[in-house]
Amino acid sequence: MRSKLTLGVAAFAVLALTACGGPAGTTSSEAPEGSADPGTGSSTEHPYGLEVVEAPEFEAGTTMAELAEAGSITIGTKFDQPLFGLVGPDGAPEGFDVAVGSLIAAELGIPFESIEWTETVSANRETFIENGTVDLVAATYTINDARKEKIDFAGPYYEAGQALMVLAGNPDGLTGPDDVAGLSVCSVEGSTPAARIVDEYGATLQATDTYSNCLDPLRNGQVVAVTTDNVILAGFVDQNAGEFELVNDGETFTEEPYGLGITKGDDEFRTFINDVLEAAVEDGRMAELWEQTAGTVLPTPEFPAPDRY
Amino acid sequence: MQALLENGPLWLQGMLATLLLTGATTLIGLPIGILLAGMRVSPVAALRVVATVWTEVARNTPLTLVFFFTAFVLPKLGIILDFQIGAILALTYYTSAFFAEAVRSGINSVPMGQAEASRSIGLGFGQTMTLVVLPQAFRSVLPPLINVIIALVKNTSVAMGFFVFVLVSVAQRLSNVYGDQALEIFVGIAFSYLLITVPLGQLVDHLERKWSVQR
């Protein structure tokens, strides 16, 4: 009880301080060009150039109100996926998922520095959401019905798709997934792309625990291709200049709508996130976030409309 | 749990793969371990050095690094193995050191007088080992040997990260499709390991009662 009271006082103090800083905030908003450039700003500027809403108001008792009052949010993302969620040696994750997560945080009045990033690998995402380890998951998280039974999805905010990556020059002459039947293909154990390439296309799976482990077997000819979502493969093509290429220019053969995972039944939070996403697509912030991250390699897509189920 | 039951064949495949890795490694690694232990107590200094270096390096290297070596470094050197063979190689190299140490502890448990007595009746080193020392050593070495095998059963799980399908891979694969049952699946897989290891412990208890050297 006592610690709650202290927290409340602290939160009030923070709110009061940020409210005082209002006029200063408006002046900085008049220089969007400077702030949109990541990396050059001071520590108070958002790395993705987002405007952090000051003292937003939410209905009491909602997740938004709780998070805004706490002034911090725990977001689960991947730490090993170039372009979407990648943690470098300095420990700060970067990528499109990270940018989208920080967009939601910004709309809750939470600056980038106050976001706590937690690694969520494919196998622990539902569990982390259910037991409250994270408030939100932005981790190349495909929306599907089985997952919806345990958690809820806001979004989609991007539609990825499974693709194939081969050695540069495509030595086996693959033209699509129908060509890999009976051949060794590398993917991550337990992932949806791994299951699909085996079940629907008859490939022999060479499974490991991270996609980056697949690169050496591909170089050595132990597998003919690596398969997962196009965005991940594009990251590898980009990182290893000239070594790999995507089959058919990265043509996808599935639709993987990426959503943001939240607690099951938290409809207000879901609606809020969907509103934020929709607004961001409309006013171009989404495209800006994309261009600063995955857009350095991939073309800017048509962003899907949130599915308000 | 329902997910595991519905995917019986997959579970069985994982179970068999884990048993196969364990079996192959024991079959190859145990003789190597016995040989290493013999070398370590042999009168030939060169053999002792080779066995000591092998044992110390193998047991002090993290298993993941050994796997990394067979999966990624050997191919770079032009030695491209089937991943399963690579896994058996990694596990055998690593586990042979533990087998060797277990056997050596057994050899050390045989009173010095036994070796001295056999030498006094004219037996050579080979005869002393095979006829007098090792038969006695084996009885006291059973519990530590089974411990090594139990550790080996669990160590096979490392192979999942290196392109080999084992029991933990079942958990990994199913938890994606049945995200809502992830906890139950992992508990079920943990229980599956018990299915392999607990009988091993029972076996050693039984054999110990039957064979233990009375001193």
Explain what the structure shows.
The complex is a heterodimer of chains A (309) and B (215). Chain A is of the alpha/beta class and 309 residues long. Chain A is built from twelve helices and 13 strands. In chain A, β9 (184-188), α8 (192-199) and β10 form a beta-alpha-beta unit. The two termini of chain A are 38 Å apart. Chain B is flat. Chain B has helices at 2-6, 8-40, 45-60, 63-76, 83-109, 112-120, 125-155, 167-177, 182-211. Helix content of chain B is 82%, strand content 0%. The A-B interface holds A 122-127, 146-147, 149-150, 186, 189-192, 194-195, 206-210, 213, 216-217, 220-222 and B 71-72, 75-76, 80, 83, 160-163, 165, 169, 172-180, 182-183.
Structural key phrases:
heterodimer; A: 5-stranded mixed beta sheet; 35% helix; B: 215 residues; mainly alpha
Short structural summary:
Chain A is an alpha/beta fold and 309 residues long.
SSE layout and pairings?
The complex is a heterodimer of chains A (309) and B (215).
Chain A: H1 2-20, H2 22-29, H3 32-35, H4 63-70, E1 73-77, E2 80-81, E3 85-87, E4 93-94, H5 96-107, E5 115-119, H6 125-130, E6 136-142, H7 145-148, E7 151-160, E8 162-167, E9 184-188, H8 192-199, E10 204-208, H9 215-220, E11 225-229, H10 230-239, E12 244-246, E13 256-263, H11 267-282, H12 285-292
Parallel strand pairs in A: 1-5, 1-6, 9-10, 9-11
Antiparallel strand pairs in A: 2-3, 3-4, 6-13, 7-13, 8-11, 8-12
Chain B: H1 2-6, H2 8-40, H3 45-60, H4 63-76, H5 83-109, H6 112-120, H7 125-155, H8 167-177, H9 182-211
Helix pairs in contact in B: 2-3, 2-5, 2-7, 2-8, 3-5, 4-5, 5-7, 6-7, 7-9, 8-9
